[in-house]
Amino acid sequence: MADDLFQDLPPPISARTVQNSSESAAGEPSTKPLASTLLPALKSALKRPKTIQTSPQPEAAPEKKLRFKTTTDASEKQVIEAMQKIASHIKNVAKFSKASKLAVQLIQAGSIKESTSSHFFAVLEAAMASSFTNCNEPSIRSDYHALFSAAQDVAQIFNEKQQDSLNTWTIRAVWANDLFTDDSFVFSKATGRIKEAISALPAATKEEDDEEAVSLKDEPTNKTAEVSSDDCSGGDDPDPFGLDVLMPKGEGPKAKNDEEYKTPLRLRREALISCLEIAAKRYKTPWCQTSIDILSKHAFDEMSRFTARQRDAIWKLWSSIREQETRRKQGKSVSGKLDVNGFEWLQQKYSTEKISIRHSVGGSGDRKCEQWLG
């Protein structure tokens, strides 16, 4: 009875597929209705996920990005006019910060070329014209440092005389300002540069001493009085070592007359003397003391490279530093130990060590490591 229910229905697809395969193997032709029946099965077996085809979308416009111009399209005439304006304002201490930043931007934009070198040199000259001490003012110290550090990148476009002036200004604006740092590495590097510059100076001649005496004959002599060792601690005296008498006082009839005979060599000596004074005023800082001791001793040993008045100032500076160093070694700190710096401590330690070049392996001349080494 159950077989009669499915009597009029076609056989299942799997059964018909097997039947068709057996008939094909026997050589019997397949019938068209059977082929049309197998077609849905083949489609089902070969069915793949359909890809959705969408109409092409127009390309999205690139996002706008904020870009800063690193070059300038200004003409040479416009650059020269800008330099002239900067030179007129950079003399003013209140406007120096902004004017110096504009000058640095001209360097970074590649606007300083041989054709504009004389105009840019006028900017640097104006920055140092009012007073050599302005470059060490705390409010604009970093701006001077940035300007003359950047100027060294284009130093090759200047002539030899201009390069000599730039190098001297760099001593005042970069090296001297590095002596105000709180970084011991920067301070040590600056003192090393100053030592090398002192060693590169030629010996001073009697003619230079005579020229210096003529230029300073109208200056007061009370600034050359003896200096006590307490001045090394950086008290309220702005000129503890009496070196201001050797420094240019800025614009004025006397200063302009002095500049007429000053050579680049003398200006360089004065810049190095200024660095020595700045370094000595930092002697109260413990980690500065070793570098200052070495620098002042080096300047004392090379005094022949300076003029007579400069030699006198260096001798006073060295005497004050040496006396302060002696007092510091004799003083007692909070811990009760001698107040010495790291260099002096190591010097004292290894002065008593027994070191042999043949047998000693241990730190005190013993042979504790001999068995371990075999």
TrEMBL record:
Protein name: Uncharacterized protein
Provenance organism: Genlisea aurea
Region (Disordered): 1-34, 46-70, 203-258
